[in-house]
Write a structure and sequence with these properties.
alpha+beta; D-amino Acid Aminotransferase, Chain A, domain 1; 6 helices; Phosphorylase Kinase, domain 1; 265 residues; seven-stranded antiparallel sheet; binds uridine-5'-diphosphate; five-stranded antiparallel sheet
Length: 265
């Protein structure tokens, strides 16, 4: 093939890198208004004070997050997700990330248990939404709606939209995981502003995977999430594989096309 007619190929290391976080990299996308979200194998905890590479984690999170976001889109819950491109990458819409971590809790665990002295595993009287300011230098402090509106991170209307999204995502995820024998204890999500001309709407962004959920096996109580890494329990990859397998994303032989979840009786 002569040089002039060769198809244009942009090697991965020459794509423009927009942002690199602890577990993901964002590259410029093929069209304006799109980005490529690349899942790395890095596992971090305690604001990156603990760090390890876990071979294959990025591939699993890419698949699990694809599964969740595809269902959210299909249910009319708006997200930034367009499609998965390959083992580690997905095409997403470029959004203006709201600098908040939105945590939804159904069962007491982690920082809620330590802060308020509520025993891990206690069912909460209702789902609780918390906001944390995304700022590594400050260790992501918990903030109230007062802080969010006073400092202009989001408007009161946007907070209402975010809370409505969070409740819908929680209901969907709790049901999805319950159907495969997993209790959704809590999870973290992020939101962004998606601009379509002059219109703006709040959409779910980032990822939803065992890296940012607490998932407990319904019958044994086994941790199937990043707490395995935080608490040095080992077996993180096997747990993420188990989550993917139960959702019907992986079978014993390895990745398949996304199918349906496996009902656990
Ligand atoms: N979480 C997260 N990123 C963070 C902090 C928390 O994804 O930077 C998730 C975490 O995996 C859990 C939920 O948010 O599912 C609630 O976490 P918690 O506040 O209990 O903090 P942790 O105990 O994880 O420090």
């Amino acid at each position: 093939m002569d040089f002039i007619n060769r198809p244009r190929y942009i090697p991965m290391n020459r794509r423009r890198r927009i942002y690199e976080g602890k577990a993901k990299i964002l590259y410029e996308g093929p069209e304006p208004g799109t980005l490529i979200q690349h899942f790395k194998d890095d596992a971090t905890a305690f604001n990156a004070k603990k760090h390890e590479i876990i071979d294959g984690k990025g591939v699993l999170n890419n698949r699990i997050s694809e599964y969740v976001f595809t269902h959210l889109n299909n249910m009319g819950i708006p997200t930034h997700f367009i499609k998965r491109l390959n083992m580690r990458e997905q095409l997403i819409r470029e959004v203006e990330i709201i600098p908040l971590e939105v945590v939804v809790r159904n069962v007491a665990a982690g920082s809620l248990s330590s802060r308020l002295g509520i025993e891990e595993g206690t069912q909460l009287p209702r789902s609780i939404i918390e906001f944390y300011f995304k700022n590594d230098a400050l260790n992501d402090p918990m903030v109230s709606e007062e802080h969010i509106t006073a400092f202009g991170w989001a408007t009161p209307q946007e907070i209402d939209d975010i809370m409505a999204l969070a409740i819908r995502v929680n209901d969907f995820l709790a049901g999805l995981f319950l159907g495969v024998g997993i209790k959704l204890v809590d999870f973290k999500m992020e939101c962004g502003r998606l601009w379509e001309g002059d219109l703006m709407r709040i959409v779910v962004a980032d990822e939803i995977s065992p890296d940012n959920c607490r998932l407990w096996d319904l019958s044994t109580g086994d941790r199937l999430d990043k707490d395995r890494f935080r608490k040095d329990m080992g077996g993180l990859l096997e747990s993420y594989q188990e989550v993917a397998r139960r959702l019907g994303i992986l079978n014993e032989e390895g990745p398949t096309r996304p199918g349906g979840p496996t009902l656990v009786k």
